[in-house]
Predict the 3D structure of the following.
Amino acid sequence: MFTSVAGRSVIVTGGSKGIGRGIASVFAKAGANVLIVGRDQAGLDAAAGSLSGLGGSVSTHRVDVSDRAACDDMARVALQRNGGIDVLCANAGIFPAARLTDMTPEDLETVMATNFKGTVFAVQACLPALEASGHGRIVVTSSITGPMTGFPGWSHYGASKAAQLGFIRTAAIELAPKRITINAVLPGNIKTEGLDDLGQSYLDQMAASVPQGRLGAVEDIGNAALFFATDEAGYITGQSLVVDGGQTLPESLMALEAM
């Protein structure tokens, strides 16, 4: 049995939809006081409505994590509303497609600004409160794309996700004396509302590449984040956990067909 996180203060960036909302739901069910942040206030309001009554409190704040000042404001709001910051789930990310032949400097900067710089800015903003908590936890949502796999059109996205892993390894060393851990979750193919318009045949094709034969649920990532946030995970830092149903294991589709 893990120590309860009930009553602890949790920030989830990019928490209005997809994996972020899944992470927020897991922490809310565990009794945490969750602040979900993102750029779309309407989306945040809808998410907060769907998450209300799960156990812990859920509130919202509009934040663009690519803006360091906005991240500072995010931390201030969490302190004001929830009395501190115990857990930061740095989840905000974007994934627009652009092939190398077409990618503009602006395309590259936009992805890196949100996915990588936004992670660093959010961590920096929350450090004083995380240290004050005495058991600060940072969980970064990376991806198998970049650190482990590639996909045409996502070279900039993959680079941003690999950069996050390079960041957490040195950050873990610097934060250890402050009793703050930092780890990453690497999702594989996860079923989110962003896939709804792709059609069932496309979803079936995605699921066929996973040994478990299904797409992951957003709660699968939330459960991994919750584990990293527990007291029992306090001796784990600078590490990454792949949550992909075995997607990255087969050396080819033939390995799955052989089953």
Notes: Strands lie at 9-13, 33-38, 58-62, 87-90, 136-141, 180-187, 240-243. Helices lie at 18-29, 41-51, 68-82, 105-133, 155-175, 200-208, 218-229, 253-257. The chain has one domain: 9-257. The chain has a mean pLDDT of 95.
